[in-house]
Structures are given as structure tokens and as C-alpha cells.
Specification:
Distance between the termini: 31 Å
CATH class of the largest domain: Alpha Beta
Number of helices: 6
Number of domains: 2
CATH superfamily of the largest domain: SPOUT methyltransferase, trefoil knot domain
Mean pLDDT: 92
Helix content: 25-40%
Length: 234
């Protein structure tokens, strides 16, 4: 899978993409991440990529010409999505990451900056994605989250692929509590059922804990799960 990141700050990604499972996955060529800097396509002597907004206002906008030139310099794979990271986009969630990891061979990710991008950039874009209902200093932060979330779903990244099916959000519920040794720490004991060796009882306990935790912490998810469980075809 190929990622092409349109960014003014490619160095931002250096350490995260060389660390942990993500670094190992890229070394094994599970995916390839490339960077293209719009500043390299600026045509004036100062290599400007931003300008004041028409109509006035605070801050600067990224100009359309360098972004168009940067994206148009890239190869085009058959299954391609061009994504703009913006607070105005659809929220990033696990089903979206699964869709991107499964259905696409190339993700072009445009990182906004300053007060955003010229509206005409949207003519390049096939999807807008948001990390959440808040504003960050740049699009590189949510872009990194997207890259991480997609690559870890690709075959060869996570050692035990089965573990991906047991995580939070995969079944529409939060994950169940988990424990490791020691069996008791500062008076807190591992639930006896987890030490029983009774796999059926453990499975029941984990399902009960998932439901309780989701209901308590994310009633919105729990309501969605209830609706979907009563309407499996929806």
C-alpha cells in the first residue's frame, strides 16, 4: 500500500514512522510512505505557499497552485483516495480505517496548515477526514494517526492478526479489562474467573465487561450497538 503525504514538514514524520510496529512494517514493505512538499512547486522567488484570504480575516491560507502541482506530480494507482485532513471532515473511526486499509492501494493525504487551504483545493479531494471536533496546529498530526491506524490493519504489521478482531470498536463495543502477572498488586486482585482456566466462563465474563464498560463510558456507542444488534441487516 502506498501513502503520499503532501506536507510542508516531512521531518515531522521521521521518528514516528521509524519506531515500533510501524517502523517494522515499513521496513518489511507492508506499506510505503512518500512525502511531497508543496514548497518545492512554488513559482515565486520566495517560494511562498500561503497568502491572505480574500475578504479579510485573521491568518493565512495555503495557496491552491503548489498543492495542485504537488498532487499532480504523483503517480496514480487504480484504487486511490485523495484525503484532506480538516476539522470539517468526517470523523476518523475504526470502520473508516478498515475501509481505507481494505479498499485502497494508494492514499494521498493533504496536510492543511495555518488557517486551512484555499477552497478550490477541494476539487482535488475525494474525501475529507477529521481527527475530532477540535483544532490542531497542522494536518500532520491527524495524518500520522491515519497512517498508523491504516498500516496496523494491513497483513504483516501485527504479529497475531486474530488480535485485531478482539480490539475496541471492532464489534462496536469497547474492549474488556485485561490483566497480567502478578495476580495481586497493592491489594488489587486479578478477577478469579480469568485464573480459572474455564474458557467458556472467561468468554462470558469478557462479553459482560465489554457491555458494561461501553454502557458506562460510551453510552452513544452502546446505543448504536443495541440498535444494530436488534437490526442486524441495518
Amino acid at each position: 500500500m502506498r501513502f503520499d503525504v503532501v506536507t510542508l514538514f516531512p521531518d515531522f514524520f521521521a521518528s514516528p514512522l521509524s519506531s515500533g510496529l510501524l517502523g517494522k512494517a515499513l521496513t518489511k514493505q507492508v506499506a510505503q510512505v512518500n512525502f511531497v512538499n508543496p514548497r518545492d512547486f512554488a513559482t515565486d522567488k520566495h517560494r511562498r505557499v500561503d497568502d491572505e484570504p480574500y475578504g479579510g480575516g485573521v491568518g493565512m491560507l495555503l495557496k491552491p497552485e503548489p498543492i495542485f502541482a504537488a498532487v499532480e506530480s504523483l503517480p496514480i494507482l487504480p484504487r486511490r483516495d485523495v484525503i484532506l485532513m480538516t476539522p470539517q471532515g468526517q470523523p476518523m473511526n475504526q470502520p473508516l480505517l478498515v475501509e481505507l486499509a481494505t479498499n485502497y492501494d494508494q492514499l494521498v493525504i493533504i496536510c492543511g496548515h495555518y488557517e486551512g487551504v484555499d477552497e478550490r483545493v477541494l476539487h482535488l479531494v475525494t474525501r475529507e477526514i477529521s481527527l475530532g471536533d477540535f483544532v490542531l496546529t497542522s494536518g500532520e498530526i491527524p495524518a500520522l494517526a491515519l497512517i498508523n491506524g491504516v498500516i496496523r490493519l494491513r497483513p504483516g504489521t501485527v504479529g497475531k492478526a486474530e488480535s485485531l478482531k478482539l480490539e475496541s470498536f471492532e464489534a462496536g463495543l469497547l474492549d474488556y479489562p485485561q490483566y497480567t502477572r502478578p495476580a495481586e498488586f497493592r491489594g488489587w486482585k486479578v478477577p478469579e474467573v480469568l485464573r480459572s482456566g474455564n474458557h467458556a466462563a472467561i468468554a462470558r465474563w469478557r462479553e459482560e465487561q465489554q457491555l458494561k464498560r461501553t454502557c458506562d463510558r460510551r453510552p452513544d456507542l452502546y446505543a448504536d450497538w443495541l440498535q444494530n444488534s436488534h437490526n442486524p441487516d441495518s
